[in-house]
Amino acid sequence: MNQETFQIFLWVMSAVASVVFIALYFVEAGYGMFRTASWGISINNKLAWALMEAPVFVVMFGLWGKSGAGFAMPAYSFFLLFQLHYLQRAFIFPFLMKGKSRMPVAIMAMGIVFNLLNGMMQAGGLFYFAPEGLYADDWAYLLKPHALLGIVLFFAGMVINLHSDYVIRHLRKPGDTKHYLPEKGLYRYVTSANYFGELVEWTGFAILTASSAAWVFVWWTFANLVPRADAIHRRYREEFGDEAVGKRKRIIPFLY
């Protein structure tokens, strides 16, 4: 792949994300509270999440090693942050899950395909096709205002995401299968605080890296999570009532 082909790849990925964004307002992705038998064969949720998220970790590691970028800063720090997220997402998060939920194989397969492509996209943007001189400042790059802002947003988003997942995991007592409205942390303001955290995290990553590939990933994150947050918001209003949900927004506090 050369620079021109990589740019076409980014445009195609952006276009597909646009289609996904529209489609998800009409079709509820069948995992979690929206899983139905119509999605076909399903497997254990923990296994599905691990299998779905691990490929991007492996691809990024392999392409970083092959690139020869080594430990050169600041690109190596970007690599570590990306891998930190997916280390947690692929190898820790699934095994913290409670209950006996299942995920359709079709959903898992789509996730695997996206993660493989995203691993190629992010590694390409950081190690193979970054604009010449963009990362020439070594450690000093990380002290630039936009980089500092990106780092703060990345870790703020990660903390929000991890805490929100913790809140969700502890809504039920052992053996309980009822649904509950989460109300702690940022769930006081939105019904999908975990998604808000992830969106903030990857926005921070894109600001930090100044990578067009990272911004395409932000668009994918938005396109995937915002329609789902809307569906969750509607489900909560149906299940718990308008009064219980109150003035909470869907995913972005005070806005949407």
From TrEMBL:
It catalyses: androst-4-ene-3,17-dione + NADPH + H(+) = 5alpha-androstan-3,17-dione + NADP(+). One of its GO terms (biological process) is cell differentiation. Keywords: Differentiation, Endoplasmic reticulum, Lipid metabolism, Membrane, Microsome, NADP, Oxidoreductase, Transmembrane, Transmembrane helix. InterPro entries: 3-oxo-5-alpha-steroid_4-DH (IPR016636), 3-oxo-5_a-steroid_4-DH_C (IPR001104), SRD5A/TECR (IPR039357). Residues 102-256 form the 3-oxo-5-alpha-steroid 4-dehydrogenase C-terminal domain. Signal peptide: none annotated. One of its GO terms (cellular component) is membrane. The chain crosses the membrane at residues 6-27, 47-65, 71-93, 105-130, 142-163. The keyword Metal-binding does not apply. It comes from the Bacteria. This is 3-oxo-5-alpha-steroid 4-dehydrogenase 1. It comes from Bacteroides muris (ex Fokt et al. 2023).
